[in-house]
Amino acid sequence: MKRYDLIVVGAGPAGLSAAIEAARCGMKVAVFDENAKPGGQLFKQIHKFFGSKEHQAKIRGYKIGETLLAEADESGVEVFLNATVAGIYLDKEVLVQIGEAMTHFKADTIIIATGAAENMVTFDGWTLPGVIGAGAAQTMMNLYGIKPGQRVLMLGSGNVGLVVSFQLMQAGCEVVALVDAAPRIGGYGVHAAKIARCGVPFYLSHTITKADGTDCVTGVTIAEVDEAFTPIPGTEKHFDVDTICLAVGLSPMSQLLKMAGCNMVDDPRRGGQVPLVSENGETSIPGLFAAGDVSGIEEASSAMIGGRMSGLAAAAYLGFLSEQDKDKRLADLEIALDSLHQGMFAPGSKGQTFAKTDEGIAVSQSLLKKGYLDDTDLERFFHRSDQTDKKSGIRPVIECTQNIPCNPCQDACTKGCIKIGKTITALPRIDANSICTGCGLCIASCSGQAIFLVDEDYAPGYASITLPYEFLPLPQKGQLGTALSRSGQPLGTAEIIDVRSAKAFDHTTLVTIKVPVAQAMTARFFKPATHAAGQ
Known about the structure:
Blueprint: E1 2-9, H1 13-24, E2 29-32, H2 61-74, E3 78-80, E4 83-89, E5 93-98, E6 101-112, E7 116-118, E8 131-133, H3 134-143, E9 151-155, H4 159-170, E10 174-180, H5 189-196, E11 202-204, E12 206-212, E13 219-224, E14 237-239, E15 243-246, E16 250-252, H6 255-260, E17 264-267, E18 272-275, E19 288-290, H7 300-317, H8 323-340, H9 365-370, H10 375-381, H11 386-392, E20 394-398, H12 408-412, E21 418-419, E22 429-430, H13 441-445, E23 451-459, E24 462-469, E25 480-485, E26 490-500, E27 509-516, E28 523-528
Parallel strand pairs: 1-2, 1-6, 2-3, 6-19, 8-15, 9-10, 9-15, 10-11
Antiparallel strand pairs: 4-5, 5-6, 7-16, 12-13, 13-14, 17-18, 20-23, 21-22, 23-24, 24-27, 25-26, 25-28, 26-27
């Protein structure tokens, strides 16, 4: 029986982070994961993360995964893949299936970081081929390069549903609608806005009632629901689709913790059956820790911090780290974690409805119910700097109207045009005393693709708008297409006048279009003349 100081179950963001911190303290660490590739969900996540520098904001998930794997290797962590932990027993012994063999391993401490599993909902035809989870769709697209379908309907408007809907369009799929039984969009408004301006409609207070097809999905029927979430007869709507994608939440995979005898609690705010843990992730069993989604569903940035905290706590438990050093390092991590736990989307705010932002501005109801800001919202949230306009003509327009933990735009602007302050959930604002040079770094750094550069003095009667663009093929200078509004409605002909790509932009291309000056504050997407939006 092989022995380790620490065994980590799960090689996702939390597990790897925990293993790295423990190994750096001098512990002999083994990580077991049932998958063929380590990194968990990170390698499916091609979008840029939110947060601040400390949270690896504006870095794409798969790149964070590559960094963690390199750090684990440098720290001497042993990672076992295709290794399923089948049991956990007294005295911190685990049974692992590797290939055909069942092998016992023993450790002095264990961290369970098994993550979460996708929830499903049932409806007539839900077992047909073509009904898949959003995570499965991500795996097909981003790991194996396979399109899940051609015409897709997404159920669920949380961040997973919103992010995967956008990635489906990036893969060349047509998302025909985004449906949710809730009366409001559940995820970040900036994610919803990316989808709405591509022309995808939102059907809130609706649910799926039937999937059509005999051997596979050929269509889907949705219906409006009442306050008890019961479908209302006569409100049915039908869509011809070949794929139904479900993003209806996650449940912690806490079976090993139950098997170990940890004290558990049923906590809907944390996703279901989760262990009772200390602030550092220690369970009711001394030396047994839980990290990441298995102890409560959160974003990957929070999972990585929680994993690091558990790794340090495990090291201190065995004496590899002094209590004084542990407390100092944990204090810094707690500050970083606390900053992610602020604002409208904090774990403690689940289920709450906010009427105003932290700044006292009325929340956009259009954004919550339709996925895009309306003209009234623009008047409330945005202001112009006459000084900036007169000196350069170019000004940033920031369409970020919710208190989301994110501030890369502030760091990206070398001229100090964009201010957020120390609280990363504060709304960005434009500094009237700074001059925008039009470099576009703020656009590329924005994880929500919510920043645009507008020049209403580009040419007599015309304005230029610089947009974030992450679709292929890239448009070319001189190409004509259609300008789309925030709601995805066509506004008229637009011409590409500039296309900028740079290493610093990290695969976000800056596309500048020329439109009539009257569309300067309404045009927010470019649809090529020969390609559907999203291709």
